[in-house]
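User: I'm writing a tutorial on reading structure tokens. Could you give me a worked example: one chain, its sequence, then its tokens, then a sentence or two explaining what the tokens reveal?
Assistant: Sure. Here is the example chain.
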Amino acid sequence: MELDWITEGPGVTNSVDAALSDLEEHGAAILADALEPGLLRELHDATYHAAHTDRKYGLAQQYEFGEDDDVNQRIWNMPSHDPVFCELAELPLAIDLVTRTLSWPASLSSMAANILHTGSGSMLVHCDQGHLPGPLTQSWVLNLGWLLDDFTPDNGGTLFLPGSHRLNGERPSEEAIARMIPAVAPAGSLLILEGRTWHTNGINLSDKGRAAIFAVYTFPVLLPQENWFLSLNPSARQFGSETLQTLFGFRPQILGRVNGMDGI
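And here are its predicted structure tokens:
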């Protein structure tokens, strides 16, 4: 199979417009300084606190579908852990990117943290809309990966196959997968993945953990990965903005109405 669709991959940029251009060309983009330092510290501390309490009380989970190992800790339903994650879900930068790629309104399919502790392995190579029937001729999913620690080739920074969105959902060959590249960027950066781009996490060979929060946005017609109606902390529903209510599915438009009304 010809591999001329594989690109060299995006560089790190500070420009949203350049990042969107990279996303179109490579199926991925890396935007530096996406998080203000104070917000980065708050997200970092809240994520590692959630990881600690999940382990302490036996709530830590692996993602069986993705074949996580026992060292790869995944924390689901982040908006219910701390209000700062609700802030992240509707960050103006996030909403701008979602609107300019998917459109608005959109849904938050899931928001999960992925922490690779020392010695963790890789999960399955996948694309985020691989569960949809093909061919996948357009992107229905936008994955925003907020880096809470530096991503390096040694600590399990996300591996992705640039240009693989052009396969329209077809699984790349093993020869192509061998040419995946790591996302290398400082903490506070944003890794943007198109829904058809094939990726996985790397292997953490360092002596420290690395964390990221992956917020996955979709068209509202798709069933979200997280069932917010059952799992969301009621306070997020009670105090959330109209933008959050839309992302969580409580402000349906056309589909999902209750007695014909678009507010639930």
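What the tokens reveal: The two ends are 50 Å apart (CA to CA). DSSP finds eight helices and ten strands in the chain.
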